[in-house]
């Protein structure tokens, strides 16, 4: 369980494939189906939010970016190889 009170930029190596974000009025399920090993949680906080042109100054209070990622062990591909990753978001 995590409460957002300001700037946050955190990597969760080996995170579970399924993450549930619960808010008072809604719940979102995020599933990293294939290809991802890590999760990143990010929120600009009040100070950085004012410097992001496409965000309202108080948007940080309602923003949580949950990104499936491969930060700890990124895939290394030979020329012309393909890597695929999927992430599914479901409003519950």
Topology of this protein?
Elements: E1 8-12, E2 18-22, E3 27-34, E4 38-43, H1 45-49, E5 65-69, E6 86-91
Features:
92 residues, three-stranded antiparallel beta sheet, 1 helix, mainly beta
Tell me what you see in this structure.
The protein is built from one helix and six strands. The protein is mainly β and about 90 residues long. The longest helix has 5 residues, at about 45-50. The radius of gyration is 15 Å and the shape is globular.
Outline of the structure:
This protein is mainly beta and 92 residues long.
Shape: globular
The ordered string of helix (H) and strand (E) elements is EEEEHEE
| Estimated share of beta-strand residues | 35-45%
* Unreliable sequence segments: none
Tally the helices: what do you get?
Answer: 1
**What spatial order of strands do you see in the largest sheet?**
1-4-5
**What value does the average pLDDT take?**
90
Radius of gyration, in Å, reads 15 Å
Summarize the biggest pleated sheet: 3 strands, antiparallel
Number of strands: 6
* Helicity, as a percent range: under 10%
Helix/strand class: mainly beta
Terminal CA distance: 18 Å
